[in-house]
Design a protein that fits this description.
Number of helices: 15
Shape: elongated
Radius of gyration: 25 Å
Number of strands: 11
Strand content: 5-15%
CATH topology of the largest domain: Rossmann fold
Number of domains: 2
Structural class: alpha/beta
Largest sheet: 7 strands, mixed
Order of helices and strands: EHEEHHEHEHEHEHEHHEHHEEHHHH
Distance between the termini: 65 Å
CATH architecture of the largest domain: 3-Layer(aba) Sandwich
Helix content: 25-40%
CATH class of the largest domain: Alpha Beta
Length: about 450
Amino acid sequence: MANTIFQQKNNLGILVGGGPAPGINGVIGAITLEARTRAHKVIGIYDGFQWLMQGDTSHVKQLDHDDVSRVHFQGGSILNTSRANPTKKVEDLKRVVESLDQLGIGYLATIGGDDTMFAASQVAKHANGRIRVCHVPKTIDNDLPLPGEIPTFGFETARQLGSDLVQNLMEDSRSTRRWYFVVVMGRSAGHLALGIGKATGATVTLIPEEFPGPIRMATVCDLLEGAILKRTALWNRSDGVAVIAEGLLEHMPVEELKDIEGVRITHDSYGHLRLAEVDFAYILKSLVEHRFASRASPMAIVHKNIGYELRSAAPIAFDCAYVRTLGYGAVEFLLNPAQNPAMNAAKLNGALVCLINGKLDYLDFTSLKDATTGKTRVRRVDIDTPSYKVAREYMIRLEKEDFRDDEKLRQLAQAASSAQHFCSAEQFRDRYQYLTTDLRGGS
């Protein structure tokens, strides 16, 4: 690339961090087209912060109309992505800012989740006003702290595709009369698992927000086993689909996970447990199958993980339209802050772009930090909302009324019995009734 385009800090850079999400290319396209309309050169930076951290400015491409005019239909990222973390070492962060200076970038649009947003906030801070930074929130996990129930882009596409997959599994489950345990991607929050479970009417959905603190593997197995027994006892059905949030793992004691044969504990550059390295679905399948086999009532459970196949999917119309607005909003913040006084854009060197009540707004990075960790807050599922309560109402799980109704309790105990193993109503009550209390600590 000719050095002449780097002589003035008038260029707008774009980079992508974290995992893929449907709509990334739409953001890149919207930013590029709008910035070029405003006569600014656009520099696409490959592989997130990876090369900038090394002081390497060669992995870039000048973007123009022909590069992006139809990319909004595509999944993945034309600029690739990485989890490279420039905030672990001060010297790495310094090299990022110096590299952006060398590229003549006075405006930077970052696309990513909570980790990339934190890195973006630190770049803005260390640039000390020389570089304006706007972060465009993306994650299929939907766990960035946007106001209200505004989704992060990529979530709706992931939920749609995930729902299609689970719907197919539900029919296979019914046809073959067996259970499926489906673990859905989502590091810290259960938005995607709950969204898929509620949309499909899955038999039961489990998310980490239901639990007050450390989550025990035995409790999760009890919940699943209870759902299976109830479906058998009251509906005479030997099929079902359980949707389970991957994030349950992150709330389990590491010592407990280490005790499971074949589990290897690793972490990414931001310190997060690499959940995909742990086959949670297989672990749950094996443990629950063992429980039924131990009472001479064997059953086969199919395990399935859903996550990677959602991340680089082509975006649905919702996300195609949504990201165009966010991309335009990012350019407005970076290049035209004085015209947006109501959005506080002129007062900020760095912010997150979002839609609030249908209008573009910009949230100060500092307002999105967790006071304890100093990093980006995580938006978790609020299980006190009507949305969750409706989803919970349609699940098949052991409930308080099951233990108040003597006939129901008798049927449940019978389902838990076999020729070699008798379970009385009182034994069933002693074993499973605790699951009907508020797992967060109440009753």
